[in-house]
TrEMBL record:
The protein's name: 2-hydroxyacid dehydrogenase
NAD listed as a keyword: yes
Span of domain D-isomer specific 2-hydroxyacid dehydrogenase NAD-binding: 107-280
InterPro entries associated with the record: D-isomer_2_OHA_DH_cat_dom, D-isomer_DH_NAD-bd, NAD(P)-bd_dom_sf
GO molecular function: NAD binding; oxidoreductase activity, acting on the CH-OH group of donors, NAD or NADP as acceptor
Native species: Paenibacillus albidus
Family per similarity comment: Belongs to the D-isomer specific 2-hydroxyacid dehydrogenase family.
D-isomer specific 2-hydroxyacid dehydrogenase catalytic domain span: 8-308
Keyword NAD assigned: yes
Keywords: NAD, Oxidoreductase
The organism's place on the tree of life at top rank: Bacteria
One Pfam entry name: 2-Hacid_dh_C
Length: 318
């Protein structure tokens, strides 16, 4: 019986050929995530992507499904417990976003540092004005929560601006381009040193509401908060309170507890806040990078039965 790979995302003909070349003996079929063919999925050993309404078909006892490669870095919306019970291998798209998201992070940082967000608002009103508060990044400290692919790329770029870099991770282990890495338990001490606090964290039981009123109260007065990780890692009311009190001078936000952000939400009217619509990871290189990750892992899977890149630890939820 021919083994089957089904991809629920569009791929170019060249990308399809790369997968077929890496998996002799397998068929590759593209499916529509919005109207998936359940009969086709029922025969798949490997799924690329995921969609609503396919779980009951793919997770039945007799399903041949062995491996799911997600199209995103986040996995919180997947039926993780059922995957774990079935022994299904799960790999995510971590690493795909490092370049576009780090560019957005520095877009926020540079806008705040040079008051470009204010200049854009002034332009709309044809107002020629500067309050003389423009600064620069040399000697500033970036505290980066999460030292994975996005955090590491952000730290590398920060070094080009002669910034100091302080990382936060579960282990506190040293990582290239970070002057120091502290543990999550030391988050309050770390944020007190930062001019820019950058949240790149996934959502897990440990990170949910991690940035709360206690943590914001530990921020350096007049610092900036940037969140491109997950909205639920941050208590929005505590964030707004910190912005209103001046504890935070500004915030660059790509993710929110509720998405889309409601039209009547107070964050929209805060001039010290820059909002993007959860688009920081969007890039025209996205599919190519997912295929890179998948084909690398596919070689290891065919050789040993286990993908080599981005294998999710169900206990850690990433």
């Amino acid at each position: 019986m021919t083994k089957s790979i089904v991809c629920l995302q569009p791929l170019s003909s060249q990308q399809q050929e790369r997968i077929r070349a890496a998996a002799p003996g397998y068929t590759l079929t593209l499916a529509n995530a919005k109207a998936p063919d359940l009969q086709l999925l029922a025969e798949a050993e490997i799924i690329i992507g995921w969609a609503k309404g396919i779980g009951e078909t793919l997770l039945r006892p007799e399903s041949p499904l062995r491996w799911v490669q997600t199209w995103s870095a986040g996995i919180e919306k997947l039926p993780l417990e059922r995957f774990k019970e079935r022994g299904i291998l799960l790999t995510n798209a971590s690493g795909v976003h490092a370049e576009p998201i780090s560019a957005v992070i520095f877009g926020f940082i540079l806008m705040f540092t040079r008051n470009l967000h204010t200049a854009m608002r002034n332009q709309l009103n044809r107002r020629w004005h500067s309050d003389g508060q423009e600064s620069e990044l040399t000697g500033k400290t970036a505290v980066i929560a999460g030292t994975g692919a996005i955090g590491s790329e952000t730290a590398r770029i920060a070094k080009a601006f002669r910034m100091k870099t302080l990382g936060i991770s579960r282990s506190g282990q040293p990582v290239a381009d970070f002057d120091q890495v502290m543990t999550t338990a030391e988050l309050d001490k770390a944020v007190s040193q930062g001019d820019f606090i950058i949240n790149t964290l996934p959502i897990t039981d440990e990170t949910e509401q991690l940035f709360d009123a206690n943590i914001f109260s530990a921020f350096k007065q007049g610092s900036y908060y940037i969140n491109i990780g997950r909205g639920a890692t941050t208590n929005t009311e505590a964030l707004i309170a910190a912005l209103n009190s001046g504890q935070l001078r500004g915030a660059g936000l790509d993710v929110f507890e509720t998405e889309p952000l409601p039209e009547d939400h107070p964050l929209w009217n805060m001039e010290q806040v820059i909002i993007t619509p959860h688009s920081a990871g969007t890039t025209d290189y996205y599919a190519e990078r997912v295929v890179d990750i998948f084909t690398d892992s596919l070689e290891a899977y065919l050789d040993s039965g286990t993908p080599s890149r981005n294998l999710v630890d169900y206990a850690r939820q990433y």
